[in-house]
Amino acid sequence: MTRLTRLKQLVIPVSVVFTALVSGKTNIALQSTKDTTQQWERINTRENQRIRGDEMMLRQQVDDIFSSVGYLVHSHVAPALKDRIVRAQLGFELNGKGPVTEQAIVAAINTAAEKLNAPNHVQTDPAEVRRLRTRLLLSCPSMIIAGDGGDESIRESMSPLQASYVAAMLVRQKLFNPEFQMTPEERQRAFSAGRFELDTADVDKLQNRSEETRAKLSTLSNMDQERFVEEFLTSLGIEQ
Question: Which of 10, 93, 101, 206 could form a cystine bridge with 178, CB 3.0-4.6 A?
């Protein structure tokens, strides 16, 4: 059995994940376009080829990740954030420091949402983080699976690089993807009812929520955003 076959068996049906906007069912920020597919392939390939502890290769990888999701922060903030993630990842690879858990991602996003006084749908939980990681398996498995010693499982703990990637992708979903803009209570009701796709009414309602969240973020000054993102990384457990 090939590695890709084993990965496919781990993934829940992904027809919802890569549904295009024109389908009318959902607006997935994970949708597969030519550009995003090429970005994910490049990130995945580099992570598989990267020599652990090689700072130059690591910086190239961090640059690619920021190219795919870096529009979430102002350009003047990015260099300091990249340096911080590189230092944390090198510490993890060379000294075993600073693994990051799914619960840490939950705490970081929920703390950030509270500081922003963001709508309740921005709040997340471990199940939603795991659902996102599972869906990312097909596009970028090397940033999701453990990968050490041939281990291809999804562990609860991640490297700082993996956690930063997953956290940024989840923030992206909270800003642009209606499926990830349900409140915790709505997610639980949908799961209990076995509802895994959104209808048109759902999408219209949830798109209004995403616009509200983006409007709140747009009011942050450069200085406020820099402090906000630095605090977010601290909440993740990524040291300065």
Answer: 206
Contact by Cβ (8 Å): 160, 98: yes
Rounded-to-integer distance, Cα 161 and Cα 58, Å: 9
The whole-angstrom separation of Cα 85 and Cα 12 is 30
CA distance 93 to 61: 14
Contact 156, 102 (CB under 8 A): yes
> Taking a C-beta distance cutoff of 8 angstroms, is the pair 171, 109 a contact?
yes
Tokens of 99: 């693994």
- 8 Å CB contact between 92 and 152: no
Average pLDDT per run of 10 along the chain, which is 240 residues long? 40 28 34 68 90 94 83 71 94 89 95 86 91 89 73 84 93 83 80 62 60 67 76 87
Return contacts of 51-55, CB within 8 angstroms, 24+ apart: 52/93, 52/94, 53/90, 53/93, 53/94, 55/86, 55/90
The structure tokens 């281990």 sit at 151
Q: Which residues contact 90 (CB under 8 A, 6 or more apart)?
A: 53, 55, 58
Question: Do the Cβ atoms of 92 and 58 come closer than 8 Å?
Answer: no
What's the Rg (C-alpha) of the chain?
17
* Count of Cβ atoms closer than 10 Å to residue 131 Cβ: 20
Name the token pair of 221. Answer: 């000054």
**For the purposes of burial, counting CB atoms within 10 Å of the CB of 167, is it exposed (0-12), middle (13-18) or buried (19 or more)?**
buried
Contact, 124 vs 191, CB < 8 A? no
Strand partners, 157: 101
